[in-house]
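Input:
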Amino acid sequence: MSLPKEYDDLPGTIVFDADRARQGYHLNMFCMSMMKPENRAAFKADERAYLDRWPMSEAQKQVILKRDWNGMLEQGGNIYFTAKLAATDGLSFQQIAAKMAGATQEEYARMMIKGGRSIEGNRSKSELKSRG
Amino acid sequence: MARIVAGVATSHIPAVGAAWDNGKTADPYWQPVFKGFERSKEWIAELKPDVCIVAYNDHMSAFSLEIVPTFAVGCAAEFPISDEGWGPRKVPPVKGHPELASHIVQSVILDEFDLTIVNRMEVDHGLTVPLTLMFGQPSEWPCPVVPIAVNVVVYPVPTGNRCWMLGKAIRKAVESFDQDLRVVVFGTGGMSHQLQGPRAGLINREFDTRFLDNLTKDPRALVNISHLEYLREAGSEAIELVMWLIMRGALDDRVREIYRFYHVPASNTALGHIIFENTRR
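Output:
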C-alpha cells in the first residue's frame, strides 16, 4: 500500500509525484521531444502519426490532440513538460494558465493585475465545499 | 581563502526573460519589474563578485523524467543555453568554475550530502533569468557560475530544512577553498504562484511578506514550513522557495538586508527579490 497523500485535499491542484511521473512518463517525454526543431516540425506535419510513435494510452493521446491542458495533468502530465507543447503552439505560460483556470486570457490577465487569485476559499477542498 | 560575502534571492519567471529578449522592458506592464532591479544591478556591479553559486531548478530542460537528481552540481567549464521550445535565449553561455565546483562536491559529499555530479548540462530560464535581472545584457557574463540544480518538480522534493543545511555545507566548502574569491550565493524561484489547474493564478501577498521578513530576521522560523503549507498557502510552484533557504543557510545568521523588491504580477507570479550582505564584505 502506498502512503496516504495529504496533498490530495488541495483544490484545483495536482501534485506531480513519483506515481504520477510513472503514469505520465511517455506523455511527458513526448512533450520533452518538442525541444528539438525537427521534432516540432514532424509533430506539426502530422500530430497523430507523431503521437503514435510513443507508447501512450489512447486517452493520453486524445488530451494532447484536443489540447486539453487540465486533461493532460490528470493523465500524468506535468506543467513544465506541457509548457513545451504550448511553446510549440506559440502559446505562453499565461495563455495555458488561463485555459486551465477556465478563463479567457483577458479575464485571467485582469485577475493577475488585480493581485491574483485570492487564497481565501482556496486552501482546501473541504473549505471550498463548506462555502457551497 | 574564499568567502561568501552576500546573498541574492530572486524569482526566475520565464516571461521576464522573454520581455527582456524582445525589447519590452519599457512596456507599461514590464517597466516596474525592470525598474525594481536597477538598484540591484548597481549593487552587484559595485560588489564585483568573483563567482556566483546559483541554486535554481531545471524545468525539465537539461534533465527529464529519465533521471531526477535531488541536488546536482554543475562542474563543467561551460553551460550552453537550453532550447525550451521556442529556441534558446540569446544570452551568452554560462561559464563555470570547475575547480570550485569540484571542491564543493568533495567537501559537501563528505559532509553527508549525496550530490549528483554533472559534467555536461544545459541551463534554462531558471538560471539565466536571474543573471539577466542582475547583470543586464553583457556580451559575456561578468563572472563564472557554479550551478546547483535542485529538484522542485517531482515530489517529494527536498525539505526546507535540508536546503538550509545544504547552504551551511556549501558555506563550509567555500571557506575551505584555497583561492581568494568573493562569492555571492543566489536562491531563485518563487514567490507565491501556481501555474497549473483550476487554481492557477494563486497569489498570497501576506505569506510572501512574512517569508521575506523572516528571511531577514528569523530564517530558522522558515526551515520547517512543510511542503503542504507551501502548496496550500502559496501555490503549487511556490515550493521553489526552498531554494531561497540554500542561499540564506550559506550566510551569517545575522545579515544586513540591503534591498527588497516585491511586485504582482509578473505573468502568473508574485515576483520577489531580496539582497543580503554578510557583515564582512
